[in-house]
Amino acid sequence: MDNERLHYGDKIIYMEGVIVDVDDCSISIDLKGRLGFFKAPKRMFICDTEPKVGQEVGWNMSFPEQLGPEVNEKYVSNIEKERRKQQEMQARLDANKED
Prior knowledge:
InterPro entries: CBO2463_dom. Keywords: Coiled coil. This protein is 26% helix and 28% strand. The protein has one helix at residues 73-98; strands at 13-22, 26-31, 36-41, 56-61. The protein folds into 2 domains: 1-67, CATH 2.40.50; 69-99. The relative contact order is 0.17.
């Protein structure tokens, strides 16, 4: 872990949310307090029973910290490729609807 790259100390806060979707690989949560949406792999969750939509979850977390001004061009390139692929697929679907 590269903790030495972080400049601010941990400010651990308790968060809660409600499960809104469960699939084979992940669990999606709406955060309470209108703070957004969180989706993570199932393997990251601690569960005594099978997770279900509507169940509440809680966890401790800190705030994400920007590690520096540099942009990781590899990630930007992959994001742009994925967006182009999605746009091409949507264009094909739209063209098929018109036929």
